[in-house]
Amino acid sequence: MAEMRKITVTVNGQAHTREVETRMTLADFLRHELTLTGTHIGCEHGVCGACTILLDGRTARSCLMLAVQADGHAIDTIEGIAPPNPDKNAPMHPLQEAFRDNHALQCGFCTPGMLTTIIELLRDNPEPTSDEVRIAISGNLCRCTGYQTIVAATLDAARRLKAEGRKP
Amino acid sequence: MKPPPFSYHDPRTVADAVRLLGSLENPKLLAGGQSLMPMLAMRFVLPDHVIDLNKIEGLAYIREANGALEIGGMTRQRDIEFSDLVAAKHPLLREGILNVGHRQTRNRGTIGGSLCHLDPAAEQVLVCMASDAIVTVAGPNGERAIPFREFPLAYMTPALEPDEMLVGIKLPLWPAGHGYCFLEFARRHGDFAVVSAAVLLELDAGGKIKRAAVALGGVAAVPLRMDEVEARLVGQVASEELFREAAELCRAVEAIADVHATVEYRQHLAAVLTRRALVQALARVRRA
User: Fold this and answer.
1) Which parts of chain A sit beneath pLDDT 70?
2) Other CB atoms closer than 10 Å to residue B204's CB: what's the count?
């Protein structure tokens, strides 16, 4: 018998109430219950970092949390980094723009986890060195071997944010 | 790769958690979830009940009391990493923590969870072994203290009764200016160590070694305190030659072999890392 529990989670600023199985991971909750499929699931055991989200402003692997543990908490996913805009040519978040301009993704599977991880990095450390970027993304696997461009994009994003006087 | 079905409990007090632990069939405690959640996904553990400790208040703290650093079992690794008190009073712990996983896992992972999981290559386990930590556990009859040397019974098996849980850890402080070093060899940053070494060093006024603690992780089924190495060091004048001789004793350690390294390679790493850690610890000694 599946054990169910009612939870309320604020995702990207919007409160959602759902009845979920207690064994459901937060990653599956975001994808299947809220249909926010931007959070990717790679390994499902906390190795690849693709499912990284922000829990109350701090990164966490959403496959290593139960949805019921997010009850009453605030989650930010990749969908929340740049709010939806009907104008398809409107600029995205400077980090996303930097990723595009630096070719920091090929297949894009690891990208949501990379971006959420780097958002936290740039909030804590607005001007990281390339070594600090490499350590920050050491828990995110990219199988297109795109690390070089990801590091370049992160440094570029830090410059753009500084020039715009904007917080990540 | 989904957790198996279980009943979920989220007690608000240690007493309730202990009661659940003692009354439910086949329960498992959930702390930060950075080890248990993968084990659930891979079905390495099949608990009927998961008791989540995250809603219990008062288990997350870092404070100095009675000459020791006291850390709550549910203290996140992140909070230890950024604690000024830890950096000032127990720099070995901070150096060890920086080798634990990644930012995403340290944000959630707890020191108590890691100690009870008791991976022999885990950094926090090794720091506790080198520091003669005291583990405080709560059970149906109240709390009791376990010296860390007696905490690992066997491979990933802590000396906890089925109805007991870890609530805190005390790390006796070394004098200001002591030498320290945590070193590990791993294939990638954030991985568990193939072999790790933790060293604490105190010199007397004449420059002789007054006290030394040397511990090795990843070498055997449980973390090891190297009593022989310490005995070789104490009372001697610190020198590279002495460190080389003492560290060579690590080559005789009974090591395990697995896919990552052979017995001989682990013994070699144990000696090399111990020597380097001793040299680094000495360089960090500050005279009063």
Assistant:
1) 1
2) 10
| ipTM of this complex prediction, to 2 decimal places | 0.95
Contact of A21 with A3, CB cutoff 8 Å:
yes
- Which of B40, B54, B103 lies at the smallest CB-CB distance from A69? B54
Interface test with A, best of B40, B49, B99, B103 (most A CBs within 10 A): B103
pLDDT in tens, B240-265: 999 999 999 999 999 999 999 999 99
How many separate helices (H) and strands (E) can be counted in chain A?
5, 5
Per-window interface: B 33-52 vs A, CB < 8 A: 33-34, 37-38, 40-42, 50, 52
* pLDDT tens sequence across B137-169: 999 999 999 999 999 999 999 999 999 999 999
Whether the pLDDT of residue B288 is over 70: the answer is no
Q: Does B65 touch chain A (CB under 8 A)?
A: no
3-state SS assignment for residue B39: helix
Report residue B215 as tokens: 């511990």
Cβ pair A121, A113 in contact under 8 A: no
User: Cα(B195)–Cα(B217) distance, rounded to whole angstroms?
Assistant: 6
DSSP conformational letter for B174: P
CB contact under 8 A, A139 and B8: no
